[in-house]
What does this fold into?
Amino acid sequence: MRRQTATGGTNPAGSSRALRLDPLSLPVSFHAHDARADGFVRQVELDRERVVLRRAVRGMRMALRLRVSDFLGVALCDIKDGRMLVLAHRDPSLSVPLCVGVDEEEIAAAWQLWSDVFALPMLQDAACEPAPRRRRRNAIRARRPKFLMRRRAGNLLEPAKIHRGEREIISRN
It folds into this structure.
């Protein structure tokens, strides 16, 4: 089995050719736009059973391995230059672009073919933009750490009992 690398996935310099992957020549590896990654690019490895997304965010490299069955389906989205097919995920920032084109018949044929190859439903107008960033506020941030929860906290409102003026009882022979 041969691996297709960067053919059809990225555009050659000066080329006006749009993104177009061949579903019959999987596995394929290509670079895609990622608004959150360093350099705005991520590497995608696409296979019939899995998708591997590699990117670096603030210098930290990561690889996400997702099963194709975790995706919602193959979605058709409208963009400014035409139409785009994406492998849609519940988190739109994990969606993978498959094909960009203007010709309606060609896009419809590719949509059906990608849906058959992955055995996923065909979706209409799924969200093609990345999800908004999550808020970084945490409701349990001020809670005591788990290992300190096992210890009893000291009670400063009730001082230790001191008995003044009493005789000390010491046992002696």
Residues 48 and 173 are 88 Å apart (CA to CA). Confidence is low (pLDDT under 50) at residues 1-16. The chain is about 10% helix and 30% strand. Residues 4-124 form a domain with the PH-domain like fold (CATH 2.30.29).
